[in-house]
């Protein structure tokens, strides 16, 4: 008997064989805890985990496990289960030591009994709320697509679909994560009541489920044919399973990548066919999304809250199926079985990504970027207000003339912003577009729209005590309605180019995002604002400059850093173009507390600041068409400036080399033929930075106007001689490093030009914070 045991070899499982138990080789009965297994091995693993067994091997820790000898060594059998990937998180534990096992969470084969859930005939409309949120998510994803591909803005929605490679897919995937987070927080309550850690943990795992559900559902909507080989990745993007080579064409190892993900592809095709045959509607899809969410939440967040929410979701989904499909009593069960297919798909996907990381930096970088977003990033959208570029203009010259007047007016105000008088700060560039962020002040919160300005450090909003006519059209802060308000009563006055703003100071709770609140932040209450502000669509200004520019206290960004809300005293600005009149779309982002690793190249060239007030550095060479000018110019990086402004010697060189002609209206603008391609570069701290043609011109219908202007400032006046605005920032992400008093330049991953006939800019603030592990 002993001899017969010695000749038994350990069972080696073939992953392609789904009929045999991966542990012992006996006949399998399905997927258990993420691994194909027989009932005996599945029960053994469940008991071992549930009863916290601690087995010890009496031999050499490599005992053979076979269907004929699986009980010979429990320690090696359990170790093999773990090695094969059986998931402890899927174990159903006992609630009582005796009697039948009671479920703590639903299984695929046995969902939570409806008798245990709400028995009320009137639902809480949880399912309706989730459906509304899911539809809004899809609408936002459409908007994101048009922001990333502005040339498709005016095409028929049925013609914008494109077969994309994996690089474009991953880019869209990362950009969509904030939209998923916003959907969950607004429409899948009480997800928003979880802690930051819990929300991040749930979102990390749930995103795998949500992505596959979303792709399968929208494939059913857009490509409903059973034989259609196109499968939706995101709105406007699809992959053809008969042409996977094209999907992986930009990968470092296309053949290897296709091999890694082929099993997952087949599972996804199988899942989507079920969606198509059932003709799953959006309410049912939202219900499946909710079930997947609360299942994950039970593992990472408050168990009782998540479990009750899961019961309610499944009850409402069951009632919906019975009411909508009375002739199909098994429909609810079929929908729940879809979750099992998704679990198998997710397990394979995770394995493929893990293997891909070992052999390909593409997967490693993609996963690291996604994890950074899950763990460290919260986005706050900024609205945009356009000046002068309305559809009422019927003639190109009228529009050009108006733009020229705006630019000319802006140039005069530059001297007021950066002049020797330190109390003068002009909000430059807002004649074209104003970047508006929505913030909440006080307890309970009051909502305000503020300009995000990197050229100043003061933060103020209009106070209710302001009785001037220009204040009547603003949202005004009512301090008596806030329990967190503390008066400081320190007077302040800021002189702007077109008038003053003045008032008193206080400390308040400032909420920049539902999960990002700065306590006891110093804020100005404006009791007077100049007439100029009446027509400006803002209730205040939030500055992001150095503390030395602040008139009455500590800048809010520095306060956030001291409170541990951001990791570093730095922020990154990335700009992107979006279609004209696309109000509220993502057109860039500001990453607080670190570097934007998603939208910016990892190669960063840092330039030391000449002084820690404005973001001022020295540039020594300017080159265009191989002709150079040498100097020692004081240069500013300003996110609020629409153009690049140069001294006479550089400006004249550009005009000469490009053969640009002045506009007939004498508005200071010069234009060139759009087919005349050129670029220019400048040198700073030993590095050369090139600005491409698309970022050196402003395309207005059939004209290409130079995005430059002349500025004859003198060093003796304490003014910058060069101001780099949006043309530079569209080309290079700007990393503003306060702590080390330097500015970094990193190529934008999607540098693009400005077309004022179809493009405006927006920003999204990204607040980077530390999640405690």
UniProtKB/TrEMBL annotation:
Residues 435-746 form the Peptidase A1 domain. Keywords: Aspartyl protease, Disulfide bond, DNA-binding, Hydrolase, Membrane, Metal-binding, Nucleus, Protease, Receptor, Transcription, Transcription regulation, Transmembrane, Transmembrane helix, Zinc, Zinc-finger. GO terms for cellular component: lysosome; nucleus. It is found in: Nucleus. GO terms for molecular function: aspartic-type endopeptidase activity; DNA-binding transcription factor activity; RNA polymerase II cis-regulatory region sequence-specific DNA binding; zinc ion binding. GO terms for biological process: proteolysis. Coiled coil: none annotated. SUPFAM superfamilies: Acid proteases, Glucocorticoid receptor-like (DNA-binding domain), Nuclear receptor ligand-binding domain. PANTHER family: BETA-SITE APP-CLEAVING ENZYME, ISOFORM A-RELATED (PTHR47966), PEPTIDASE A1 DOMAIN-CONTAINING PROTEIN (PTHR47966:SF45). This is Peptidase A1 domain-containing protein. It comes from Bursaphelenchus okinawaensis.
